[in-house]
Amino acid sequence: MKILKLIAILSITTGATAVFPHNNTAHSSAPTEKVQTAWGIAADAKTVNRTITVTMTDQMRFIPAELQIRAGETIKLVVRNAGKGLHELVIGTKAELDAHAALMVKFPDMEHSEPYMTHVKPGKTDQLIWTFNRVGEFEFACLLPGHYQAGMVGKIKVSAPSTPKP
Description:
Layout: H1 2-14, E1 20-21, E2 41-42, E3 50-57, E4 61-63, E5 66-70, E6 73-81, E7 87-92, H2 94-106, E8 110-111, E9 117-120, E10 125-132, E11 136-141, E12 153-159
């Protein structure tokens, strides 16, 4: 319990994303809280426009390493762990991922759970459903200690929606 209090204090004072102890349990089946972020908002399966599969490897890479998305698209990210170790995919801004990765180095046994992230065990697959409703360049990364530092980062480029021609 002391570590959770310390993490809460660090999160408040540093503005870092909250993290919770690793327990290797499945994510809650509770409804996803839909909170607007700089890179979008959680969505429902019925609103999916497109599905993209992202594979994570033990070479600390994502395949593909860059995603092209139009603002307003709801994407189902199918996240596959092709490695022998645990990996995760967390979406965010570079600054937020940098801060979160630094916190993960300090607390290596931490797990976090937000609708814009998933932890995937070796050989398993999970998914995220996200509406990218903000134009910009964002990232996705594995923030497990050493993974981010080894370059396990991908880019998300969200462009303005195309306008239909008259």
